[in-house]
Amino acid sequence: MTSIDARLAELGIELPEVATPAGSYVPALLVGSMVYTSGQLPFVEGALPATGKVGAAEGLVSADDAYAYARQAALNALAAVKSVLGNLDRVKRVVKVTGFVASNPSFSGQPGVINGASNVLGEIFGEAGVHARSAVGVAVLPLDSPVEVEIILEID
Length: 156
Hints:
Layout: H1 3-11, E1 28-31, E2 34-37, H2 63-85, E3 91-102, H3 110-125, E4 132-138, E5 147-155
Parallel strand pairs: 3-4
Antiparallel strand pairs: 1-2, 2-5, 3-5
Helix pairs in contact: 2-3
C-alpha cells in the first residue's frame, strides 16, 4: 500500500472508478511534470447525485449539498490522476483547483462550495494540498450538474 493509499484509508476515502468522458477528451493528461484533469462532475457510481442550480431558495441545490458534490468531484479528479500515474505518491503538490458552480443569479457563495474540493485535497495531501484556486459561478454545467472541478498537480 502506498503512503497516499494509506492516508486515504485512514480518512475512510475510497477513490471511485474513473468517470467515462461525456465527449471527445481524456479524463487526465500527463505533460512533463504536470497532470491536468478535465472538468470532473460529482458522479457517484455513474450517476449525478443531484442536478440543477445552487442557491438558498426552495427547489435549488443547497450550498451544503453542493460542498459535498465539490468534494466528490475532486475525488473523481484524483481517480483520473491515479489512472495516468499508477499511484498518487508521485504527486508533489496540488497547484491549482478551478471550480464551477451552476448558480442561481442571487447566489454568491461559490467559494464556500468549492471549499469542498479544496478541503479534501488538504486532508489527503497536507501542506502539499495547499493550492491556488478559482471558484466561478456559471449559468449551467454539463448534464445540469451543480458543480464541476478540475485540478492541476505537479509530480515527481
